Amino acid sequence: MPTFPPDDPDVLALTGVGVVAGGKDLIRDVDWRVRRGERWVVLGPNGAGKSTLLHVAAAYRLPTRGVARVLGSRLGRIDMRDLRRRIGYTSAELERRLDGRLLVRDAVLTGRDAMLTRWRPRDCPAATARAEALLEELGLSGLAGRLLASLSEGERRRVHLARSLVAEPELLLVDEPAAGLDIAGREHLVALLERLAASDLSAAVFVTHHLEEVPPGFTHALLLRDGRVVAQGPLDESLTAEPLSACFGLPLIVHREEGRYWARRAGSPVPG
């Protein structure tokens, strides 16, 4: 059950948030609220600041400017390590840092304490049972005893998703999990995210730069370009031609069918 204040509707609240690195603004003047029950997708071109934004939301980076509150606590005024244990977070950076010599089951269990080091499953049978249940749910039960480094890219992505869920997080943050996957791998992940959207998570945020990866069941979108917010709000308002064209710097025509979105350049022929 959530442990942040029950009368606070904001799972995540950023006010005037900016991040500067090497004299460059990575994100600027971001105002953003993620409330209980909402499922957000963050979209934008390469270099828009999406991963930086999620790094702040995951309590791995303090903002240079502004105020960031996560699960009722202001970043900079709380032990970030304690806060991370309440957040399920997966990203390419974390994937690279996790030891490939770990068994798949043990790799999932490192998420219990938001650590990237070895974890002894005998220390907590209940956590081990949850890890094995998640692996089965994600179609990986037969791989629990394999080395993480021996898996395919798609299989590793699912392992990291299981890792982000093992501690039953109050907030789930998923950064471009389909990057580098083929069509089958991408569609499998989209289906998994659709199931997660229907779960009892307090809130979830999914980052991508591909419109076709937006899972059914997600409710809101935040569009970024050059570190600034272009648009935000319910999907039927923000995932339309005008804001998406401004976000990607290209005139687009947007299609929606059975809860999925596609876009093509205006004036280009329709495939088929």
Structure, described:
By secondary structure, this protein is of the alpha/beta class. It folds into two domains: 1-86 and 170-240, P-loop containing nucleotide triphosphate hydrolases (Rossmann fold, 3-Layer(aba) Sandwich), CATH 3.40.50; 95-168, no CATH class. It is 29% helix and 28% strand. It is built from nine helices and twelve strands. The protein has helices at 50-57, 80-84, 92-97, 104-109, 125-137, 153-165, 183-197, 235-238, 241-248; strands at residues 10-21, 24-35, 39-43, 65-70, 73-74, 87-90, 171-175, 203-208, 220-225, 228-234, 252-257, 260-265. A six-stranded mixed sheet has the order 6-7-8-3-9-10, sandwiched between helices. It has a four-stranded antiparallel sheet with strand order 2-1-4-5, covered by helices on one side. Strands 11-12 form a two-stranded antiparallel ribbon. β9 (220-225) and β10 form a beta hairpin. The longest helix is centred in the C-terminal third of the chain and has 15 residues, at 183-197. The radius of gyration is 18 Å and the shape is globular. The termini are far apart. The mean pLDDT is 89.
Question: Summarize this, please?
Answer:
With 272 residues, this protein is an alpha/beta fold. It has helices at residues 50-57, 80-84, 92-97, 104-109, 125-137, 153-165, 183-197, 235-238, 241-248; strands spanning 10-21, 24-35, 39-43, 65-70, 73-74, 87-90, 171-175, 203-208, 220-225, 228-234, 252-257, 260-265. The chain is built from nine helices and twelve strands.
